[in-house]
Amino acid sequence: MKRLLSAFILTAMATVCATAQPNLVPNGNFETYTNCPSAFSQVGNATGWLSWNNSGSPDYFNTCFTGGINGPGIPTSVVGYQWPASGNGYMGIFNTTFTFTVKEYITRPITPLQVGMMYEISMSVSLANFSAGGTNDLAVFFYDAGPTSYPGIGLVPIAPKVDWTSMVITDTQNWVRLSKTFIADSAYDNIAIGGSLSPSNVTYVPVTTSGNITYYLIDSIVLKVYDSLSFVFNDSLKCSGDTINIAYVSSKKKQSNNIFTLQLSNASGSFASPVNIGSVTSDTSGMITAVIPANTATGTGYKIRIVASNYADTSEASISIKIGNGPITKPVANSNGPVCANDTLKLLATTATSGVTWSWTGPNSFNSALQNPKINSPLPGT
Q1: pLDDT value at position 248?
Q2: pLDDT per residue as tens digits for the range 334-359
Q3: Fewer CB within 10 Å, N or C, the chain?
């Protein structure tokens, strides 16, 4: 058997992302209601929600309705069969554009947005069974100083912030999850959902041979700050005095005087009194070069994170890092070979660095995590 199999120090890789963000759309899944809907056109029964065009009459469906197929029941009603994407309720809106235009919108107040912040808006959509076809006319509007309602049942006279005009939703069996990001250019405190295209710009795909109805079910509306500050860390074993380069991604729109700072925790992973080890002034994603302080005590629970100054933001902490007092020395591997077939092959490894891990690999699928493993009766010729 070969004298030297292999010995090496294992490292780990982790991608660190920002913590989960709360939903800025209250009652975004229509679970809370002031009264169980008793008929169609009762959008206002879902707490906080209203019709955006005052002649429109969006429908609120909930499993609490027990009045039969001719009302807003779930899963069966005159519009078709569908269970909620989540919970017990959903909304229904007309989105029809043929010889005449019928568009319905739902709207409600939201947690005010911050100018320059990147957000993600998502929702689940399904085409109702009684629809004749689907369109590419679903969009999300935001407003703060605009009207809280518009007359009629037609197209509202403002532009959406997000739209899905590149796709036509015709799935009547499943919920389709729509999602997009955008940067807030105003402190919007209201959201509205409905159509944004004039009749001449709508793409229509029929799903039946007759009729002129397009009616969408909407559920699980989520608006949140987009995971805004993240970095990739690929080394869990470092030494005091080491230089590290951290590539970070920032999805928020930063100011030109923003500073990204890389911080080191204490040996227990606490950032109560972090040590700033490197920084860069930038308004975009980039690279931070940092140095682990020479006086850093040996420990196994250190972590790093990135803090942005303008807009204030903090990434999630990294995995634990083992930090030693000196440079890591290359391990030396040896054995007691050559040996005979009935002998015991002893593999030997040494290094001046403490606290390392070991991994041996070799012929015949041999592997071991011991520093000095043994192989009984090694096969001749290997």
Answers
A1: 85
A2: 887 787 777 787 878 887 666 677 88
A3: C
Examine the domain organization and report whether 118 and 147 are in the same domain: yes
Find the CATH number of the domain harbouring 319: 2.60.40.10
Cis peptide before 338 (omega within 30 of 0): yes
Residues 232 and 218 in one domain: no
Q: Rounded CA gap, 84 and 124, in Å?
A: 9
Where does a domain end: 179, 194, 225? Answer: 225
Q: How many domains does the chain have?
A: 3
266 shares a domain with 361: no
What's the pLDDT score for residue 272?
94
Of 137, 149, 46, nearest to 88 (Cα)? 46
Distance CA 83, CA 277 (A): 53
Q: What is the DSSP string of 259-276?
A: EEEEEE--TTS--SS-EE
The domain of 341 spans: 332-376
Kindly report the pTM of this predicted structure.
Answer: 0.61
Cis preceding linkage at 311, omega within 30: yes
Residues 150 and 101 in one domain: yes
Q: Identify whether 134 is part of a domain.
A: yes
Cβ distance 359 to 335 under 8 Å? no
Q: Measured between alpha carbons, how far is 337 from 343 in angstroms, rounded to an integer?
A: 10
Tokens of 184: 């807030």
Domain stop point among 199, 225, 251? 225
Examine residue 331 and say whether the peptide bond preceding it is cis (omega within 30 degrees of 0). no
- Give the chain's radius of gyration (CA, Å): 30
Q: Cα dist. 168→84, 128, 243, 369 in Å?
A: 21, 14, 51, 55
C-alpha 10: how far from chain center:
29
